Amino acid sequence: MPGGGAKPGERRGGRQKGSRNLSSRESRAIAQGYGEEVLEGLMEIFRDTTQPGNFRIMAGREVLDRAYGKAAQPDRHSDNVGNYDLSKLTDDQLRTTYEILKLATPDHVIGDAD
């Protein structure tokens, strides 16, 4: 078999010995030093009508994400949360289940009859 992998004690890949390990805090501080310049560059791309439309849209989206935060993503699920035979529950159990689910339902859901 050619290669055969690393020999015992041999390092392959990863950060090289002696290279500087930037902490997240240091990396963030360095990047923040360029924040205004990067935003100005993005705005130049956004305003430049000679740029392709998708570049301008991406630049504008990046600026808006920084200014207002990323847009909330809708919850995505298969709508298949299980099949339940509610006929097995008593009226009291059904009422309790309804009240629990009503408390757990997001405020924006329409259909609450109360």
Q: How many H/I helical runs?
A: 4
Tell me roughly what share of residues is in helical segments: 40-55%
Task: Bin the strand percentage.
Answer: under 5%
Tell me the Rg in angstroms: 27 Å
Described by strand count, sense and barrel closure, the largest sheet is: none
SSE class: mainly alpha
Helices and strands, in N-to-C order? Answer: HHHH
Instruction: Give the low-pLDDT segments.
Output: none
What is the number of beta strands?
0
Mean pLDDT score, rounded? 80
Distance between the termini: 72 Å
Broad shape = flat
Keywords:
114 residues, mainly alpha, 4 helices
Structure description:
The chain has 114 residues and is mainly α. The chain has a domain at 24-68. The chain is built from 4 helices and no strands. The protein has helices at 24-32, 35-47, 53-68, 91-104. The N and C termini lie far apart (72 Å).
Which secondary structure elements does this structure contain, and how are they paired or packed?
Blueprint: H1 24-32, H2 35-47, H3 53-68, H4 91-104
Summarize the structure.
The chain is mainly α and 114 residues long. Helix content is 46%, strand content 0%.
